[in-house]
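Moderator note: this is an archived Q&A kept for reference. The question asked for a predicted structure of one protein chain; the sequence and the answer are reproduced below.
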Amino acid sequence: DQEYAKEHPDWSAEDVFIAAFNAAQDVTINFTRSGSLGKQINQAVFAFNPAMQGPNKFYRELQTNPIRTVVRGIAWLSIPAIAMWWKNKDEEWYKNLDPRFKYNNLFIEHDDQVFRLPIPYDIGVIFSALPVAILDADYHQNPDLYEGLLEIARAQVPNPTPDVIGPTLDV
């Protein structure tokens, strides 16, 4: 609160509180941020609004802090993903994984056990799945491995079909 009060001495205590509250909601994905159409669709489609707000938050971060956003994505997602891919790329169990599963997770092998760490939705595709898919397809000389990346990218786009109707269409 004090930060906003110093920056805006003419604001009331309530103005400062509201600004701080809104900023706190936007630290990660703001689940309450939506348009009128998004609110209506979200009532029928589970998690539609967060699926829209994730990419929106990433876009806004790129607009506000492009270098910081890219550096953090590379440091926290790309480098660990590439390191785990390098360590596992020749392991038979890793080669046999479905590409969608492989590119959506990091795998750590320790004492004959494999631990799976899921990558973040949205930004994980750009900074983790994409570099691993490119490396994997190139290393194994198999462009079909890109199909797993395409499936992950398609899953990022929210399906506006109401959840009540979806299972009927699947049959």
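Archived answer notes: The mean pLDDT is 86.
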